[in-house]
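Quick bug: FAD-binding protein output formatted oddly.
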Amino acid sequence: MRPTTEVELSEMIRSTAATVVVRGGGTRALGRAEGPVLETGGLAGVRLYEPGALTLVARAGTPLAEIEALLAGERQRLAFEVPDLRGLLGRDGASTIGGVVAANASGPRRVQAGACRDSLLGVRFVDGAGMVVKNGGRVMKNVTGYDLVKLMAGSRGTLGVLTEVSLRVQARPEAEVTLVADCGEKAGGIEAGLAALRSALGSPFEVSGAACAGGRALLRVEGMAGSVAYRAAALRKRLGGAWGEAADGPALWAAVRDVSAFAGRAGSVWRLVVTPSEAGRIVTTLSGEAVIDWGGGLIWLLTEAGQGAAVRAAVGRHGHATLARASEGDAGTALHPPELPAVARLSSGLRAAFDPRVIFAQGGKI
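Here's what came back:
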């Protein structure tokens, strides 16, 4: 199924009795959901772009590359630094803006600019009854009732099919500096590196990236050239030690954003969203290789098969662990951890409200 209009999509949903799998570009799916595929690629095109107002409205099937090229022409960008996980997950195809929103896809700049949902101003979608629903608009407003804008971001096609999104965009900075320091054992290890990242994020110097990868701690500052130079110097003074300036900053952040270090390598990949202060303990407790982003809030972990119980035990009550890519030996491992009873009741109630006929697939299998 590949509708080209919102009306056509609504009619398709009303007439189907099968459980369907919603797909944009197919580049971010975790696991394998079963059922007929409903593609949103036919709902494409930028409907409105106002550079002066920093707003963009696009249909959900619009390719992400088209939007990024349009913004680049006005020296603007999506603030949340969309990851490209095709290499990591072994996918091909072209990412769509609807898929980005449905996955709440957010890169290293989340520590400063927020997640995708924080740039989302409005949505249009078709629910499981075939009804067209609109929430929000081109300006941010506080409204009563469900905040459907935030709810749809990260819903992964389980509550409705996005047809249009409105986003706040951001001007590209004049300058960018990446500070780098060793966080290997000789420099105090990962715990010392993460402590430095937390110190930087707690400073007034507006850090836009804080990561540990490949034995190095990375910090990024962006903005006007004079401000960037001042803040980078102030951070080096605050942190002490041997913090140097990286010559290849953009490439380093692209590698962190896309988890390039694990692309094409054998093993299972876990995505852990955790309390930042627990990141060091979790990584040192587990066997495997880690790429740590968001100052410790996001851990990508490459492990051998059969580590699921250990990974979820290490995370415990301090976050959640998703099996993003499974090796053959983890074929029976659950994609997501069990929901807490209160969360499960809330999730069930939302699905009953937006998809009473259970038209949309509720997650994949490894």
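Actually, after a second look the formatting is fine. The chain has 13 helices and 17 strands. Closing.
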